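Hi support team,

I'm opening this ticket because the web form for multi-chain structure prediction keeps timing out on my end. I have pasted the exact lines I submitted so you can reproduce it. The total is 375 residues across two entries, so I didn't expect it to be a heavy job. Is there a limit I'm missing, or should I split the entries? Thanks in advance, R.K.
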Amino acid sequence: MTSPVCQIRPITIGNNFLRRKPHQLPHKSFWSSSKAAAAIANTFPSPSSTDSLPPSSLLPSSDKRLRSPWRILHDRPNSPSKRIKTYPPPPSSPKLHPFPLADHTAAHIAELDPNGTRTRLFDRNNPDVPNPGDILLATFKTGDPFAGVCLSIRRQGVDTAILLRNRLLMTGVEMWVKIYSPNVRGIEVVKRAKKKARRARLYYMRKPKHDKGSVEGEVEEYLRRRRLIRSGAAMGVKGEKMTGKRGR
Amino acid sequence: MLNCIDNSGATLVECVANLRMKRHGKVGDRIIVVVQKSRSMGDSGPGGTSAAAANKVRRGDIRHAIIVRCAKKVQRKDGMVVRFDDNACALIGKNGEPLGTRINGVVGAELRAKQQSKILSLASMHV
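Hello R.K., no limit was hit. The queue was backed up. Here is the completed structure from your submission:
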């Protein structure tokens, strides 16, 4: 609790000193009388009123109490005409970035998906956009590919993900796959639903009555067909680049 | 209640304690179970070995087990979330070796991180 008092005190003392005229300063007489001051005056050739005060390192150790007001005097000469330098305010960040979250998301997506293929595939305006109910195949850089019926697509910027459901060895397995994940190599549409689902979230397909079961057969057929098409394209149209892993 | 998916003879077990901490179990956790249903000798199929394996446990036995599937969603380090339709486990002995010689069904890949690669290698498929 005493520390603020200690901080304020030297300033008030300094103000008292500033209010006084130079000839009223008590220390000048002290310094002019002492021999040390004379020696210092020799080393500093222009001993004017306040500027001639010796540096604090030369002060005698007994005078510690007086040091701080002296220093203040030294730092702030008695000239009221001095201008205070003003600086322009820093640029307003709300004006620079009116929509910071959208900008951040866009930058994040641009970093994770430089070609824009993933964004385009799950863009709502894309006529070939995968819908819930389609059978999708996700391939990963590490681990086995996972295929399943798409139960829902969660579009949330960089967190965009699809929920795939499959039946492996009589056990239902569901997996959320983040489409912008660096681990995901590609997402392909294996088979479209016969009719577009009238729901966005097909969680009812977890029930045994509606469960599609294993999609292994469809995926096998799709992979076989894709292999055929690719080999045909390699033989026939040379130089034409394949659309990539994202089959349409 | 968990399904038991190895060929130790138990089919349905009840979890009575989690050895990791007093909380819900996850894939890879060691639990204490009571065998509620076990395959009878006749059902274990042809072959003397599987019949012998079916003898390993019987109803009312208290055993240790490792959880291999859980219906609760688990998020992995790479952001993928996996859930299974049921809860399942595989029985182990006191030394941590699996009692059965085979595991029929898919198991969670989290077992590798939990140093249960023996069960992982026995399993026919892991996700």
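A quick check on our side: Residues 3-75 of chain A form one domain. Let us know if the file doesn't open in your viewer.
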